[in-house]
Amino acid sequence: MDNFGLVLLGMSCITFVCRFLFFYKNLPFELGEKTKLALSYTAPSVLTAMWVPIVFLSYQHIEQSFFTSPFLIAGLLSILLSLKFKSTLLIVMVSMTLFITLQLTY
Fold first, then answer.
1. Which of 10, 35, 55, 61 has the most CB atoms around its CB within 10 Å?
2. pLDDT digits (tens, 9 = 90+) for 20-53
3. Which H or E run includes 47?
4. φ, ψ for residue 26 (rounded to 5)?
5. Cα–Cα distance between 66 and 51 in angstroms, integer?
6. Cα separation of 94 and 92, whole Å?
7. Up-side HSE of residue 45: CA atoms within 13 Å toward CB?
8. What pLDDT was estimated at residue 54?
9. 85 pLDDT above the threshold of 80
């Protein structure tokens, strides 16, 4: 196994152990309300850190304008759909279909 595989395995184990400790019901461990509130911002922060570079920097690598980037168009569509519909699966499927279609046409 190369170094990448070992690092990936290590990060997977660390993530599993951290999550397991919080969700395992038999451990006598309870987080305080302030800690729970602070942790509620984790998912939006991580997701934002992931999608911002993809959407706003992807057009530089594929030699097209920012406004015709498939990443931006599919991202905007997913935002609009999420405001209208509450079905996450529907939003993901429609947005991915549009993204793949745009990727194939450019």
1. 55
2. 877 777 777 777 899 888 888 887 888 888 888 8
3. helix 42-57
4. -85, -5
5. 15
6. 6
7. 5
8. 81
9. yes
